[in-house]
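assembly run, all chains below
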Amino acid sequence: MTFFFEVTINGLLVGIMYSLVALGFALIYKASNVFNMAQGAMSLFAGLALVGFLYQYMHLPLWLALLCTVGVMTIWAYVIVYGILRPLVARPPAMMFMATFGIMYILEGVGQSIYGTQAKGLNLGIPEKSFEVGGILLNTFDLIFAGVAALFVAALVWFFQKTRNGRALRAVSDDHEAALSVGIPLLKAWSMTWVIAGIVATVAGVAWGTRLGVQFSLGYIAFKALPVLIIGGIDSIPGAIIGGLIVGAGENLGEVFLGPYVGGGIQTFFPYLLALLVLYFKPYGLFGKEIIERV
Amino acid sequence: MFYRECGNYKDTYASDMAVFPIPLDRYGFIVMLILAFIVIPWTASEYWLSNIMIPFYCFGLSAIGLNILAGYAGQISIGHAAFMAVGAYTALILYGRFGIPLLLSILGGGIVSGAVGAFFGLPSLKIKGFYLAIATLASQFIIQWVIVHWQWVSGGAFGTVETPDMQIFGWELNTPVEKYYLALCWLIVLTVVAKNLVRGQLGRNWQAIRDMDYAAEIIGVNLYRDKLIAFSVATFYAGIAGALITFCYYGAANIEEFHVMVSFALLGMIIIGGLGTILGSFLGAGFFVLLPLFINRFMGIFMEVVPSEIRSNIESIIFGGLIVFFLIVEPYGMARLWQTIKDKMRLWPFPY
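ok done. output:
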């Protein structure tokens, strides 16, 4: 039984990190109805930029390097909003979705042209120690990042619920035109959303980059976040968090208890099976807004 | 001045429904066929035939499939490359292990891929939009995993299945020219089928579903049946394309060739080429295959040897940039540009 709890808890810790990536998607979808396939590439770019500031081109202290990375992601956010999304205003969502494919390719190409394609280690000086609590083996590294992610999620929820800017963003997500008519500048709101998504991508890129090394496949963590997103509902922030926990625990349990029977390595698709199962009963995810269409 | 009909002389249904109502188009098409069948195989070098033309035809075929699904039926799929893998492995196993004739094996690859595709299309009955797009991504990962872990199919995680010598009725295909003809013949037959599918009842149903599924249902389109048919036709094309590209180009089936990035690239091809057009699938695929070549030529001006790293980075920047460019400037892709030229030619030399 302790083993079961250990697997579950370690899964949940990883799950919080999935939520972090999924949150980036949910934020942008909520504010601008764009399903941003470039979220993974943004994390990759942020990770690459951080490595660049830390070791590759400059040797900045960690806090300054993080600040510079956020600055770079902010510049990208403005470029994307003003250069790409603004001309696409009022096009069908599927078009915007495909435009983010283009953004994904551009980010990957630019990032790897500047910083090279080889895998780079990222060491933030966090000790990787394991210790036991009540018979359950935990990892300091996972715990610290789960804590950071949880704090971050809490900060975002606070921002969206309590601050003036957050309320403006929620208004934009509810209805673009109504928001415009009460004087909320749409492009400013979008830019802000993309900047926040860039910051989320930075945190995700740092967390996953430290775990897996900064390399091309970092962009693939987006594929882990997608089932999280559809389990929770694309446009729901609590959904992204709970979905992340479900996927984290589910994939770990599945790998440990089902994996041996089918030959292992099922984490790549097990979250998708979970997601399909949820979608069968709730086509808009657990917390997603049901879309009512009229002919 | 010559590019127009002089009045409406259509007095049979056949002439009214012609694919090319204008004679010049018909001649143009015949010229293209002559080019493809006679001029290119005789003049092109071996490198061009086997490294440019064959991948171009195979990706074009796969893009037609995706275009039927995403462009005509409006169901975005991000798992198309996995179905190419299904077709490739099935065809290789049928041909190599069971000794079924080559053409039938390739067809079998397509049919199995179509059946698998219909299965993975089942979620489309319940969900749609982005939720469906992500559900199709599931097919990519599940198929990849199954192929890697099913030893009998792939021979393990890093296994590849070599293509045996190809024979049609005892005639061995071993030169690039013969492989080129194999790919070309499949392409022509399946393109004609696709063009007529999307012009007919089924194609119109698909377009109705794409434009608004509820409205389509109300006017009597059988949503479930037609969505599933779209999935299985699209994946049938992917399967054939996968089998052909493995037989004629890669020479061995390896799951790495059908990675999720290939699925993304296919989606990019149909966006650049033009969603909802058959011609666009070819334009997009041609663009995708030729782009690395152009970059090589262009970079060759500045340096002796172009490192593959730089080339692939520039490739992805240009590819991404063009996806965005086309979506902003011409959402219907290169095919629409061709349409505009044709409309202009029709009126020339008069302004309207």
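Chain B has 15 helices and four strands.

The beta strands of chain B are 161-162, 166-168, 171-173, 252-253.

not gonna interpret more than that til we talk
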